[in-house]
Hints:
Blueprint: H1 10-19, H2 26-33, H3 37-44, H4 52-62, H5 66-84
Amino acid sequence: xxxxMKPIHPGAILREDVLKPYNLTITDAAHDLQxxxxxxxxxVNEKSSITTEMAIRFEQVxxxxxSFWLDLQRDFDLWKIKESGKIHLKPLTSLxx
Length: 97
Protein backbone atom coordinates (compact mmCIF):
# COMPACT_ATOMS: atom_id res chain seq x y z
CA UNK A 1 0.00 0.00 0.00
CA UNK A 2 1.42 3.36 -1.05
CA UNK A 3 1.72 5.94 1.67
CA UNK A 4 1.26 9.68 1.44
CA MET A 5 3.35 11.77 -0.89
CA LYS A 6 7.07 11.83 -0.14
CA PRO A 7 7.96 14.70 2.22
CA ILE A 8 10.51 17.16 0.97
CA HIS A 9 14.06 16.73 2.22
CA PRO A 10 15.18 19.70 4.36
CA GLY A 11 18.20 20.12 2.09
CA ALA A 12 15.87 21.01 -0.77
CA ILE A 13 14.20 23.68 1.37
CA LEU A 14 17.60 25.05 2.32
CA ARG A 15 18.71 25.10 -1.32
CA GLU A 16 15.54 26.59 -2.83
CA ASP A 17 14.21 28.83 -0.06
CA VAL A 18 17.37 30.04 1.67
CA LEU A 19 20.50 29.79 -0.44
CA LYS A 20 19.03 30.75 -3.83
CA PRO A 21 17.02 33.81 -2.69
CA TYR A 22 20.06 35.18 -0.85
CA ASN A 23 22.44 34.29 -3.70
CA LEU A 24 24.55 32.26 -1.28
CA THR A 25 26.93 29.67 -2.63
CA ILE A 26 27.44 26.46 -0.73
CA THR A 27 31.00 27.63 -0.02
CA ASP A 28 29.86 30.97 1.43
CA ALA A 29 27.07 29.41 3.49
CA ALA A 30 29.40 26.71 4.80
CA HIS A 31 31.83 29.42 5.87
CA ASP A 32 29.05 31.29 7.71
CA LEU A 33 27.91 28.04 9.37
CA GLN A 34 31.53 27.15 10.26
CA UNK A 35 31.29 23.73 8.62
CA UNK A 36 32.95 22.15 5.62
CA UNK A 37 31.70 22.79 2.11
CA UNK A 38 31.39 19.03 1.64
CA UNK A 39 29.17 18.69 4.72
CA UNK A 40 26.77 21.37 3.50
CA UNK A 41 26.84 20.08 -0.07
CA UNK A 42 25.72 16.65 1.10
CA UNK A 43 22.75 18.20 2.92
CA VAL A 44 21.78 20.49 0.03
CA ASN A 45 22.03 17.57 -2.40
CA GLU A 46 19.82 15.46 -0.11
CA LYS A 47 22.49 12.88 0.68
CA SER A 48 22.83 13.67 4.39
CA SER A 49 20.42 14.34 7.20
CA ILE A 50 20.20 17.45 9.33
CA THR A 51 21.43 16.77 12.84
CA THR A 52 20.35 18.66 15.93
CA GLU A 53 23.65 20.52 15.93
CA MET A 54 23.21 21.50 12.29
CA ALA A 55 19.67 22.69 12.98
CA ILE A 56 21.04 24.97 15.70
CA ARG A 57 23.62 26.33 13.26
CA PHE A 58 20.87 27.01 10.70
CA GLU A 59 18.79 28.74 13.38
CA GLN A 60 21.65 31.02 14.39
CA VAL A 61 22.77 31.92 10.86
CA UNK A 62 19.52 31.88 8.88
CA UNK A 63 17.14 32.81 11.73
CA UNK A 64 14.85 29.84 11.02
CA UNK A 65 13.90 27.79 14.08
CA UNK A 66 15.90 24.62 14.69
CA SER A 67 12.63 22.81 15.34
CA PHE A 68 11.52 23.61 11.77
CA TRP A 69 14.57 21.84 10.31
CA LEU A 70 14.28 18.90 12.70
CA ASP A 71 10.56 18.48 11.98
CA LEU A 72 11.29 18.35 8.25
CA GLN A 73 14.03 15.79 8.81
CA ARG A 74 11.86 13.67 11.11
CA ASP A 75 9.00 13.59 8.60
CA PHE A 76 11.38 12.67 5.79
CA ASP A 77 13.06 9.93 7.84
CA LEU A 78 9.76 8.41 9.00
CA TRP A 79 8.43 8.31 5.44
CA LYS A 80 11.64 6.75 4.13
CA ILE A 81 11.63 3.94 6.72
CA LYS A 82 7.92 3.22 6.24
CA GLU A 83 8.31 3.15 2.45
CA SER A 84 11.27 0.78 2.67
CA GLY A 85 9.03 -1.94 4.09
CA LYS A 86 11.95 -3.24 6.15
CA ILE A 87 10.09 -3.29 9.46
CA HIS A 88 7.23 -5.78 9.81
CA LEU A 89 6.20 -6.37 13.41
CA LYS A 90 3.03 -7.80 14.86
CA PRO A 91 1.03 -5.48 17.12
CA LEU A 92 0.78 -6.36 20.78
CA THR A 93 -2.60 -8.00 21.33
CA SER A 94 -2.68 -8.47 25.11
CA LEU A 95 -0.82 -7.62 28.25
CA UNK A 96 1.84 -10.04 29.31
CA UNK A 97 1.84 -11.33 32.87
